[in-house]
Specification:
binds pyridoxal-5'-phosphate; 2 domains; 4-stranded mixed sheet; 7-stranded mixed sheet; Aspartate Aminotransferase, domain 1; 15 strands; alpha/beta; 38% helix
């Protein structure tokens, strides 16, 4: 808690006109603004003096809780020492430290980190790495990329091409050519109210064999999936599904990319989803929890074999014609180092695992509440799916979002699914307040 009360932190409303907000109904928002003016630990404070529990860790990112003093201190110290240094042909020490810390946490064999500024950039970078990897090996016909229906891989052209959420795609033309999609794995008639991984559906990975049969393996560069899909509404991989994808990729020389932008850094009570599920991909995309949401940063983590393949041209020549002005930015790197230290020193990843049962029981207590058709969970992620109002998809969940906000809890909704992804510091009383608030909002629905 800040020293000041929430009322004291209330601020004057700024002029809202010029800002074009992302993924937001701008006109509605500007008539009904909700501004967060400060945050600490599990809580956010608003312009009009409310205290809210943050049940989604910002946007699945503030894993260490808001404004952690050690991370804040590291960012301040870095800003005073080195604001920026050229990212190409020059560098700075902190980013090397961060690469070592991240790869030390990663599954065995994942030994290299390439830094970017967001999850979307991580995805586009990983797709480019996969294409270039095959080309360097003389396999230049491997250009096809395989995503999955309902997948979310950010908003770059690569990410929306392999992604599978229609509103994110349909306005933007033809996107990348040569992309195909696996079927999604969500099936309520088989898997409703699963706790942890659903039992039914590992065979859905076999559709990759059909895609290979259609296009031929020699044309396919990579498969990209979220090990646990978040933004589409928390879809868990059926037990055995990811291993089956791994096996089929290995059989056909296809690279496997796990998009761990939300699942990395403790969200599933393990360092990565890959480590929790015991399936190691060739490339892992990350962002969000890397800096606990404090400074924008993402990373692509690569197997040694991929890095080594690039390191074959003449020494001194650029090996990968890709990078961003702000790749490995000093402030982000300092925030990342401090964040990973905090996870370790405070045992937050183990804590997430130890709280999983409590969150699970609390979430599943919502079974039987009005309009609830499914509850599912793993690690510090949960979802409550609602029956949509006929002809008005998303409206029911949006009513719950607004009511919960008024009652002091920030939830996230996508379609008619309510998602929970609290900071890993969440305690029993926060879980109780989150769930009881949602329960009361569901009961208040008309
Ligand atoms: C799995 C996944 N990939 C990529 C992204 C895009 O990340 P960003 O919004 O940082 O570009 C997200 C964002 O939620 C995500 O969940």
């Amino acid at each position: 808690m800040p020293n000041n009360t929430a009322e004291q932190l209330a601020t004057e409303m700024p002029d809202l006109q010029s800002y074009w907000m992302p993924f937001t109904g701008n006109r509605y928002f500007k008539q009904n603004p909700r501004l967060i003016t400060s945050a600490k630990g599990m809580h956010c404070y608003t312009h009009d003096g409310r205290e809210l529990i943050d049940a989604v860790a910002g946007l699945w990112c503030c894993n260490a809780g808001h404004c952690h003093p050690k991370i804040v201190e590291a960012i301040k110290a870095q800003a005073e020492t080195l604001d920026y240094s050229m990212a190409f042909q020059l560098s700075h020490p902190t980013v090397f430290d961060l690469a070592n810390k991240v790869t030390a946490m990663a599954p065995e064999g994942i030994d290299y980190a390439f830094f970017v500024n967001s999850g979307s950039e991580a995805v586009d970078t990983a797709l480019k790495m996969a294409l270039a990897y095959h080309r360097i090996r003389g396999d230049a016909s491997r250009t096809r990329l395989i995503g999955r229906e309902r997948g979310y891989h950010g908003v770059g052209f690569g990410g929306i091409s392999v992604g599978g959420i229609s509103p994110n795609r349909k306005m933007f033309g033809t996107m990348l050519p040569g992309v195909d999609h696996l079927p999604h794995t969500h099936n309520l008639s088989e898997n409703a109210y699963s706790r942890g991984l659903p039992k039914w559906g590992a065979h859905l990975a076999d559709d990759l064999e059909n895609i290979v049969a259609l296009h031929d393996a020699s044309t396919i560069a990579a498969v990209i999936v979220e090990p646990v899909a978040g933004s589409t509404g928390v879809l868990l991989p059926p037990d055995g599904y990811l291993q089956r994808l791994r096996d089929i990729c290995d059989k056909h020389g296809i690279l496997l990319i796990f998009d761990e932008v939300i699942t990395a850094f403790g969200r599933l009570g393990d360092n990565f989803a890959s480590s929790r599920f015991g399936v190691t991909p060739d490339l892992i995309t990350t962002a969000k929890g890397l800096t606990s949401g404090t400074v924008p940063m993402g990373a692509v983590l690569a197997k040694s074999e991929i890095y080594d393949t690039f390191m074959t041209g003449p020494e001194g020549a650029i090996e990968f014609f890709h990078g961003y002005t702000y790749s490995g930015h000093p402030l982000a790197a300092a925030a990342g180092c401090a964040t990973l230290d905090v996870y370790k020193e405070e045992g937050l990843i183990e804590r997430a695992r130890s709280m999983e049962g409590k969150l699970e029981d609390a979430l599943h207590s919502l079974k039987g509440e009005p309009h609830v058709i499914d509850v599912r969970n793993i690690g510090m992620i949960g979802a409550v799916e609602l029956e949509p109002i006929a002809g008005q998809p998303t409206a029911r969940a949006m009513q719950v979002f607004r009511d919960c906000y008024d009652k002091g809890v920030i939830i996230r909704t996508t379609g008619d699914i309510i998602a929970f992804s609290p900071p890993l510091i969440v305690a029993d009383e926060h879980i109780e307040k989150m769930i009881e608030t949602v329960r009361s909002s569901l009961r208040a629905l008309n």
